[in-house]
Design brief:
Length: 303
Amino acid sequence: MEMDRVRSHVRMQRYRMYAAGYAMIAPFFVLFLLFNVLPILWGFILSFTHYNIIQPMRFAGLTNYIELLTNDDLFMVAFRNTFTFAMISGPIGFMSSFFFAWIINQLRFRNAFSLAFYAPSIASGTAIGVVWLVMFSPDRLGIINNVLLRLGVINDPIRWTIDPVYILPLIILISIWMSLGAGFLTNLAGLNNIPYHLYEAGRIDGIRNRFQELVFITLPQMKPYLLFSAIMSTVSALNVGAMAAQVAGFPSPDYAAHTIVLHMQDHGFLRFELGYASAIAFILFLFNFSLGRIFMKMLSSND
């Protein structure tokens, strides 16, 4: 009987401990449920309907997905542009943010350099697009065109934001420049958290230069930070939209800067085809989720 009372008391203490933990995570859990999980589930439900806000919602089955993947040529253009954009800007931005963080972490005035690298990520895509439009204006007043004309490199202004040949590379360049901030700051924090005694032990074991330290000590210790940076770079690359519209207009010439996000906004906010736009959003969600899982497998710190 006494043993049962002891067990009951221990069980109650354990429940109280769990209750305190659940109470502390409850605010975040409720907000996460309301603003992340439920919108995703509601968007998934909407993707199987015809709904335009005004008329009643009608069940459509897989009609939206079939139309999207078989008959929507513009979606294929948007998918190709987004995939090209992500495959170029994502890896370059990811590797560049780590490289610059590794270099600047060894400099004396690293706080000033850190601020310079992080500043672009604070501004919105629209504001950054306006700044770059001054540089790449398609007339003689653009800074780049003006310099090239004065140097005699070109005879006529390059139509940076009008010619489809230049639009996507220009957007990729701007995106890489913008994406360095958050990834750079994350990698810099990770580099500062690596215990110094690991480098001392490495020197005792035969490591003689910075490159060997990078390969055998820094990169293995940086896996969690690299994972976060890779996922954020991928998400940022796949969700490009506002900046592309600001630079090339909407719609862009020959749809050279048309992305999945802009295609979704076109159907959702201009045509009010919310069921169709939800199908586009869910495909983009699956794309993001799949790439995130791939990066988790590649950069997982567990052996």
